[in-house]
Amino acid sequence: MSSIFDQWNFKISNERTTSDITIQLYQEHFCIATVLEAFITSEEIEFKDLNQYVFSVAPNDFLNMSVARFNLVLAKMIRLGYLVADLESEKQKFAITELGVKVWQQQTFQSLAATSFFSYQSQLINIESHKLNKTSVILNKSVLILTAFSLIVAIASIIIAVYSLHK
Q1: Number of C-beta neighbours around residue 47 at 10 A
Q2: Residue closest to 40 by CA, chosen among 81, 82, 96, 84
Q3: How far apart are CA 50 and CA 39, in angstroms?
Q4: Phi, psi of 60 (to 5 degrees)
Q5: Alpha carbon distances (Å) from 159 to 72, 150, 151, 167
Q6: In a 3-state reduction of DSSP, which class is residue 151?
Q7: pLDDT tens digits, one per residue of 115-154
Q8: Which residues contact 86 (CB under 8 A, 6 or more apart)?
Q9: pLDDT digits (tens, 9 = 90+) for 78-118
Q10: Percentages of the chain per state (helix, strand, coil), in multiples of 5
Q11: Contact 113, 30 (CB under 8 A)
Q12: Which residues of 55-85 are buried (b: 16+ CB within 10 A; e: fewer)?
C-alpha cells in the first residue's frame, strides 16, 4: 500500500533554505507593520498610494519583493480582518479595521518584524561562521601536515648528524 505522500507526489523536503524562509518572514512581517502604519494619517488609502508608501520606507531587501507577494500580504491582512478592501471601485481603496488598529497599537507586527530581522541576521552570521569554521579546519589540517613534515625533517637531521659523528 502506498502512502499519501506517494499518491499526491508530496515531498518531505524542498529546496528552500533557512535563509529563504527567514527573509520571507521578515519581509512579510515588515510589510504588514508598514501597511498598518500607513493608515496613521488616513482611514482609507488607494492601492497605488499604499504600494508607494510601503516601498518608500522599505529597506533595500524589499526591492526584490514581487508585487504578487505584496498582494498576497494584503490578501492575508484582509482575510485576518486587519483591512477591508473596495476592489470594485476604480481606485481600489483599502481601509483599516478596528482589529487592525488594535494590532497596530499593540505593535505586534513591528515586534515580529524586528524579531524576524534579527533571526535573519543571525542566520547570515551562522552561515559565515560555518564557512570560517570550514576554513579553520582546513588550515589546522595544513598546519598539522606541515608540523609532521617538520618533525620528519628534524628526525632525519638528527639521524644524519648522529650517523656522521660515528663515521
Answers
A1: 17
A2: 96
A3: 9
A4: -60, -25
A5: 77, 14, 12, 12
A6: helix
A7: 888 887 888 888 889 899 999 999 999 999 999 999 999 9
A8: 92, 93, 94, 95
A9: 999 999 998 777 788 999 999 999 998 998 888 888 888 88
A10: 70, 5, 20
A11: yes
A12: eeebeeebeebeeeebeebbeebbeeebbee
Degrees, nearest 5: CA angle 90-95-101: 170
What distance in Å separates the CA atoms of residue 34 and residue 104, rounded to the nearest whole number?
9
Give the amino acid at 104: W
The set of cell numbers assigned to 48 is: 497605488
CA gap 37, 55 in Å, rounded: 13
Q: Which three cell numbers stand for residue 20?
A: 529563504
In our burial notation (b when 16+ CB lie closer than 10 A, e otherwise), range 33-45 reads bbbbebbeeeeeb
| Secondary structure of residue 53 in the 3-state scheme | helix
Question: Between these two residues, 18 and 141, which has the higher pLDDT value?
Answer: 141
Query: What's the CA gap between 115 and 28, in Å, rounded?
Result: 12
8 Å CB contact between 76 and 85: no
